[in-house]
Amino acid sequence: MVVGVLALQGSFNEHIAALKRLGVKGVEVRKPEQLQNVSSLIIPGGESTTMAKLAELHNLFPALREFVQLGKPVWGTCAGLIFLANKATGQKTGGQELIGGLDCTVHRNFFGSQIQSFETELPIPQIVAKEGGPPSFRAVFIRAPAILDVGPDVEVLADIPLSAVENINSNNAIQKEEESSESEKKVIVAVKQGNLLATAFHPELTADTRWHSYFLKMVPEIGEGTSAIISTPTTDQSFIERSIIDFPIYQ
Ligand SMILES: NC(=O)CC[C@H](N)C(=O)O
Fold this sequence. Notes:
This protein has helices at 12-21, 48-57, 61-69, 79-84, 162-168, 210-217, 237-240; strands spanning 2-6, 25-29, 41-43, 74-77, 85-89, 102-107, 118-123, 136-141, 146-150, 155-161, 186-193, 196-199. With 251 residues, the chain is of the alpha/beta class. Bound molecules: glutamine. It comes from Nicotiana sylvestris (Wood tobacco).
């Protein structure tokens, strides 16, 4: 069993490493025909405009859309979430091509620029936490998008109160879509719609493999029957101690 990881740009190596920690082989996908050798796909974080240009160059969009429409499991993290959205705002001039399929509107850089990147603890959704582990997970947001609205078939898995983000970025210049006086206003940062999973944060940059485990359970040939690979989060201290500054700066 292999899981495809779109390897045009961004954190594809980190996803492959996370899969390896669960005993699953991740294979790099760069060409349309390579999608025929995988039954599921992870689209990593990175820079969605660059990734879209590379995907166009390799004529990947038709094959990626077909992959999604065939109902195969696809997980988009960060830039990958933008790729999967039906609609994106805050795009560069001229916009960018999207795969689409996920009935939502995403704001590309909702939380601000690179220096407003942050980490926070979020409650782990029930369906992801089935195997146990701590009640929260470390959510790493790097120049992150957020989901502004979702269609009726989209299940919201995680959201974040804007007040928490403002506390984290004490000198913040967060560009909010709309100012709100309600301190409990939240934005959506993780969703599921049928075969599609999307997260605005980067589980592949943490030691916690529960999001990867959850995605693997969406893959029919792994499915619910393979709890053996669903282990408790890695406690490899050297990995845990890495902070987001150890990871590449996305332009
Ligand atoms: N870490 C990320 O993937 C950042 C995504 C970035 N906001 C974009 O537009 O592509």
